[in-house]
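Extended Data, panel c. Modelled sequence:
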Amino acid sequence: HTHTHTFLYLLAGDIRGQFTDLLRIFDVAGRPPTTKYLFLGNYNGRKPENFKQIETVLLLFILKIKYPDSIHLLRGNYECGSISRIYGFYDEVKRRFSVKLWKKIVMCFDCIPIAAIVNEKIFCCHGGLSPDLRTFDDIRAISRPTDVPEHGLLCDLLWNDPSSTLGYASDYRLGYEFGPDVLTRFLEKHNLDFMCRGHQIVESGYEFFCEKRLVTLFSSPSVPEFENLGAIMIINSDRTIQFTQFQPVVRRFESESYWFR
């Protein structure tokens, strides 16, 4: 349920089915197995006409199989049967292939790990902290495969957002918002320096919270109805971090080929 690594890593936030932008991340930052990646979830998008969602999801699955020590995938709130059906992934798979394939992919979603610890000091998940998270054994105790429930620890780790309000407050969707005091206590209790999560669209591709003790990372630029940048985060072996921002690429699907063939 958790991965612990001591190597240099590149972290990527939401991809949202933007296949060409995923390819550009590999071209800019390096290709596996040379570069080690941790993806924070939300590999499919929100609209039926979105940017080759099937190719995005299956390429990441293929790379995980081909380079298991260089590609690590965490589960996002979109990696769920009900959400993928509402936001268009189901429609795309059904239209282009079959409902049976969608069901097989959802079975894979139900097995994806939930959280990771990088360099023993950086806690990573898709969403946020939970009042039900007391120790990391609570995460390890979540049995997989599993659907995402409407409340509880798994739901919170995929849905919760940081907030300037102290403590926990009910979110308008699922789960909670958690304040800077919650984050500080969590990091100090577990001897951690930093938290990295995805889930929210941020204008610059990354956004700090709580005196730079948390960063929200979003890697799909110019998602529908927004004009945001995308960003990726590099974690160096000396625990320094750096960010690379990028604009969306021109999407010319007919000319795309991929290097692992």
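The first helix runs from residue 19 to 29. This feature is highlighted in the accompanying rendering.
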